[in-house]
Write the structure tokens for this entry.
Amino acid sequence: ERLTSPFDYVNAAELYIPKMRNDPGRVDEHTEEVTDFLNNELPKLSASLVLFSSWKQMFKVLEGLDEALRDRVIEQGGRSKSAMLQQHRERIDQGQPSCLFGLASFAEGVDLPGDYLTDVIITKLPFSVPDDPVDATLAEWIEQQGGNAFSDLAVPVASMRLTQAVGRLLRTEKDRGRVVILDRRLTGKFYGRQILDALPPFRQVF
């Protein structure tokens, strides 16, 4: 059973899954849609973290951002994670909007309480890349045991990673905010419900 949490999830945070036209499998179309969403949303946000699953998509989205928004983005790649977080905090302290763009390493070990982070935007479900050798070996073993590598391995692993990513939002009991997931598979695929049910019980907006 779940341990009781000090967090009042329902009142503290909202989980928003916008109606996306494109599945992340259609990479270019999905990337374009993510870019449009961010161009529309970022102007309203003061402290956000956008998590990507690939460098390629991150840089493509960055390229497509409105000029005025690019200045507020601190993207992974040039500096250490701690330097990026430091810069983000300084901007927020000065009353400037700031947005972090990062990959999987930003889904863990990022502690930005209070006003330092109010919106976490996840561009797609964190499924493993098919050519990961460890996962491939494990998948093969599961199939040999008569299991289903997708539902027995891929879905639980993605679910765990997503829960970890979502955990960036509420760091203290006073924190408030929103998690946005730009992946229609959460509401459209059979495994979506299982992944949603594993997340903290936020207020859900679809």
Observations:
- Residues 149-166 form the longest helix (18 residues).
- Strands lie at 13-16, 47-51, 73-75, 98-102, 119-122, 177-181, 203-205.
